[in-house]
Specification:
By secondary structure, this protein is mostly helical. It has one domain. The protein has 3 helices and no strands. The longest helix is centred in the middle third of the chain and has 12 residues. The radius of gyration is 9 Å and the shape is globular. The termini are close together.
Length: 41
């Protein structure tokens, strides 16, 4: 299940390796709450 979540996160352009900086950047660009993006990782 966790692998599926990782694949979904990567498919949405979130690079899990880059961690919080990328989450913050995506959050700002997509206007999504930080927690919603973090849940994808």
């Amino acid at each position: 299940m966790k692998q599926q979540k990782n694949d979904e996160a990567l498919a949405k352009g979130i690079n899990a390796i880059d961690g919080k900086l990328t989450i913050k950047k995506v959050s700002e660009e997509q206007q999504l709450p930080y927690s919603a993006i973090a849940d994808l990782l």
